[in-house]
Amino acid sequence: MRILGIGDCIELGDMYLSLAAEGHEVRVFAGDDAHRGTFAGLVAPVADWRAELAWVGRDGMILFETAGQGAVQDRLRAEGYRVIGGSALGDRLENDRAFGQALLEEAGLCVAPSWAFEGPAAAAAWVARNPGRYALKYDHSTHSTFVGAHKAGADLLFRLERSPPGSVLLMKALDGVEVGVGAYFNGVKFLKPACIDFEHKRFFPGDVGEMTGEMGTLAGFDGADRLFDATLAKTGAALAAARHVGYVNLNLIVNEAGAWPLEFTCRFGYPGYAVLAPLQADGWGDLLRRMGNRDSDRFRALPGWSVGIVLTMPPFPGGLLPDARPEDDPPILFHDEPGAAEMRHYRRMDVRMAGGCLFARRHTGYVMVVTGTGATVEEARAAAGARARNVIVPDLRWRGDIGVRFLEQDRVRLAALGWL
Fold it and tell me: Would you give the DSSP letter of residue 308?
């Protein structure tokens, strides 16, 4: 099968490598010039994805990585191409926070009180009049969600005064278990099984430090049905009407008062896709076919858990290093060199190959995600930790506590509430 990947940063690079290993032909377009060196020497880059439509044809798959080109995807589907990634509706659900909350409320879910503003200044003025703890969410922005800790909102006001222009949403801060539920949608229905995930977004162990997007995830396909049926499944009719095709995730806070949706992800999660991959028994090619052909409502998932640990180096998480030079990219080395089968657990992210050596790009400092699986969370944690310790990169940093919060707190609380 021919597969054309389209994105800004080649965020799904490890998926492309897996597809190529399965025997598929893969070509990739990176729209952001700053990221065109990602996966150099590993994937076949193209200069203009539109010029590749004849190559991929109606029998191949076009894979969009990011939310933002949903209307383009809808148009290509109408022209007969098999397109996976999202839709115009998916873009709006992810990027227009107030719209997403309204759709969830119409679907019958409990939603937390929230207030939309045209910009940070208006939001700050409102907080000054209504002091309290709120979560700040940005529309159409790469900025991470900020959750205020000060009871009167003083820390939130500081952040708002330094936020970029653009619409924002304030949501009442909720206490409880943060958990995600996700599933693949084929344009008509969700494929089963759904997954459950627990993200670790802060930089340091113990959930301390700045929000990074993601430092690691605990995920599995067992035990997600009840939470899925009560939340994400209720959005199926809206997604079917939009002919959405791709992965959809709903992040939640669960407490004694219910399951409260926070935000949508209407694209392949990053690095969530890499964390789920070891539990998808028949590989990415099989799963893409099932979504694109709309002839199946299930795929084969393995039991147990997967733990993914994000391995980074400077400048992560401080943003891009625009003057990074290739000669400053360190080699990726191992204490024990992984064989081909074992290497599938070392899921490369911002890397390049040159002279037969794999390098971590200093440009972002996002090196790889190592995964470990097991029948129990403890087994999956041990396997992922052993692989993280096997990697040698100068200035490498990673969290060693991925999944600990679930073992010590979240599992008991979710079980007591009847969700697990």
Answer: E
Helix or strand (DSSP H, E) at 252: strand 245-255
pLDDT at 141: 66
Q: Rounded CA gap, 37 and 154, in Å?
A: 41
3-class DSSP assignment, residue 68: coil
Residues of the chain predicted below pLDDT 70:
141-142
Contact of 240 with 190, CB cutoff 8 Å: no
Same fold for the pair 2-93 and 113-172: no
Provide CATH code, domain 113-172.
Answer: 3.30.1490
Fold of the 2-93 domain:
Rossmann fold (3.40.50)
Radius of gyration of the chain (CA): 21
Report residue 52 as tokens.
Answer: 């590749």
- Residue 65 · residue 274 · CB < 8 Å: no
Assessment of whether the complete model's pTM goes beyond 0.85: yes
Show the tokens assigned to 359.
């390098």
- The residue ranges of every structural domain in the chain are 2-93, 113-172
pLDDT of residue 214: 93
Picking from 122, 121, 123, 119, the residue whose alpha carbon sits closest to that of residue 135 is 123
The closest of 307, 308, 309, 305 to 374, measured between CA atoms, is 305
pLDDT of residue 1: 96
